[in-house]
């Protein structure tokens, strides 16, 4: 298939995130294996937009490697300045570390924190209800995932204030692709976790740091402090703004589709399927890159070895070839066999169950306590950054909330 001049990929950030979907559709329909060649002499890369291509690349880590970083910038691993976090590893190194980390993210362990999440959500939603509304991002959608990430990392309650400050700085810097702008926060957080690692070595607890400190890799080797720090960094950067994006997008969808909201209010048993539809449509991580380890021929195009390949999860999630002609519509009764919001294959998100739980509890309590809420997406502001689509601010109106 020859490239189409009308199908152009332009990285989004801030306001450009408001509606990237026509661009995705044009790419899927007219240039599904799209080549981006920087006219200013920068590095080129490729973009996959159809479900079948993105899915196949996600599960084929041998051909589409994560080891050189997840953005379309070359030399990303070197610029990061730390030992590669787990998201920049390939099997078998990735597999061994993932097996240790995932021990703290089993469905049973995730479900065990449901009361803590619900208590936090109820307190925040009640505050919004009493005040008639406010910015739901700062009130609930941002602090909730920070609470959960801190829990799984084993950060004591008395240290949460510092952790939240570091998290905010690192997430903001990571969104813009300039982690170095938060170097002070990164340094402080790494120093803190170095101390926490030693504390857990002496007295393990039921958290991920303890699991890694006392775990052994496949060859019996201890997990290095650098790898543990990299895992903490991954949870902070990957577990915060993504959940914020999911929840902000879900509240927007429920506001724009009152008939779907009514279905959920009348029949709460639809919530499980509704979460999957919200995940599919919001796809907070709109796309991440891999690096081709060999020459790849796809749809008549030649992707050379060593080139970055952007996997557009958000476009794949709206591909009519996978979801039918109404793929762009919000349908809470839709039967979804699979989606790419958490990727697929070896890099499927280890925090997927935690994200689903947070979304479920938050939406249940908002619909129970503020059934007639609305959010003003037009007045909301999208966050900067080329990879995560989320509201940075989102006005919430609790008018009509139940007494």
Structure description:
The protein is an alpha+beta fold and 403 residues long. It is built from 18 helices and 12 strands. The protein has helices spanning 21-30, 51-59, 76-80, 93-101, 107-111, 114-131, 136-141, 143-153, 160-175, 183-202, 208-213, 225-239, 241-256, 258-266, 271-282, 313-316, 320-323, 352-369, and strands at residues 33-36, 45-48, 64-65, 133-135, 288-292, 296-298, 301-303, 308-311, 374-375, 381-382, 391-393, 395-397. The radius of gyration is 21 Å and the shape is globular.
- Most strands sheet: 5 strands, mixed
Q: How far apart lie the N and C ends? A: 59 Å
Q: What's the SSE pattern?
A: HEEHEHHHHEHHHHHHHHHEEEEHHHEEEE
User: Portion of residues in helices?
Assistant: 40-55%
Low-confidence stretches: none
Shape: globular
Strand order of the largest sheet: 1-2-8-5-3
Structural class: alpha+beta
Question: Proportion of β residues?
Answer: 5-15%
- β-strand number: 12
Average of the residue pLDDT scores:
90
The quaternary structure here is single chain
Radius of gyration, whole Å: 21 Å
Helical region count?
A: 18
What features would you highlight for this structure?
48% helix; 403 residues; alpha+beta; single chain
How is the topology of this model organized?
Blueprint: H1 21-30, E1 33-36, E2 45-48, H2 51-59, E3 64-65, H3 76-80, H4 93-101, H5 107-111, H6 114-131, E4 133-135, H7 136-141, H8 143-153, H9 160-175, H10 183-202, H11 208-213, H12 225-239, H13 241-256, H14 258-266, H15 271-282, E5 288-292, E6 296-298, E7 301-303, E8 308-311, H16 313-316, H17 320-323, H18 352-369, E9 374-375, E10 381-382, E11 391-393, E12 395-397
Parallel strand pairs: 2-8
Antiparallel strand pairs: 1-2, 3-5, 4-12, 5-8, 6-7, 9-12, 10-11
């Amino acid at each position: 298939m020859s490239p189409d001049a009308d199908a152009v990929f332009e990285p989004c950030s801030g306001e450009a995130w408001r509606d990237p979907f026509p661009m995705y559709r044009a790419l899927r329909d007219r240039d599904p294996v799209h080549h981006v060649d920087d006219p200013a002499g920068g590095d080129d890369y490729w973009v996959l937009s159809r479900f079948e291509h993105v899915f196949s690349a996600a599960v084929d880590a041998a051909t589409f490697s994560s080891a050189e970083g997840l953005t379309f910038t070359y030399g990303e691993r070197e610029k990061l300045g730390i030992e590669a976090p787990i998201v920049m590893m390939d099997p078998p190194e990735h597999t061994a570390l993932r097996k240790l980390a995932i021990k703290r993210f089993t469905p049973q362990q995730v479900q065990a924190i449901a009361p803590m999440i619900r208590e936090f959500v109820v307190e925040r939603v009640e505050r919004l209800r009493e005040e008639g509304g406010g910015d739901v991002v700062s009130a609930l959608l941002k602090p909730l995932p920070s609470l959960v990430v801190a829990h799984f990392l084993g950060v004591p309650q008395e240290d949460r204030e510092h952790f939240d400050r570091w998290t905010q700085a690192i997430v903001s810097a990571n969104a813009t692709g300039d982690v170095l702008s938060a170097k002070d926060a990164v340094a402080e957080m790494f120093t803190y976790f170095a101390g926490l690692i030693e504390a857990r070595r002496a007295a393990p607890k039921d958290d991920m740091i303890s699991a890694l400190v006392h775990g052994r890799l496949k060859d019996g080797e201890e997990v290095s402090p650098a790898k543990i720090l990299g895992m903490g960094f991954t949870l902070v950067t990957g577990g915060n703004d993504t959940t914020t994006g999911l929840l902000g997008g879900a509240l927007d969808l429920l506001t724009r589709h009152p008939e779907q909201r009514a279905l959920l209010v009348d029949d709460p048993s639809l919530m499980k399927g509704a979460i999957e539809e919200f995940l599919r449509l919001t796809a907070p991580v709109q796309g991440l890159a891999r690096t081709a380890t060999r020459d790849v021929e796809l749809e008549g195009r030649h992707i050379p070895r060593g080139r970055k390949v952007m996997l557009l999860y958000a476009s794949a999630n709206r591909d009519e070839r996978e979801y039918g002609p109404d793929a762009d519509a919000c349908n809470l009764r839709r039967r979804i066999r699979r989606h790419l919001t958490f990727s697929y294959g070896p890099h499927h998100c280890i925090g997927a169950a935690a994200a689903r739980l947070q979304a479920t509890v938050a939406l249940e309590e908002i619909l129970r306590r503020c059934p007639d809420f609305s959010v003003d997406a037009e007045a909301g502001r999208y966050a900067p950054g080329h990879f995560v689509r989320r509201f940075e601010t989102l006005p919430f109106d609790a008018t009509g909330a139940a007494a």
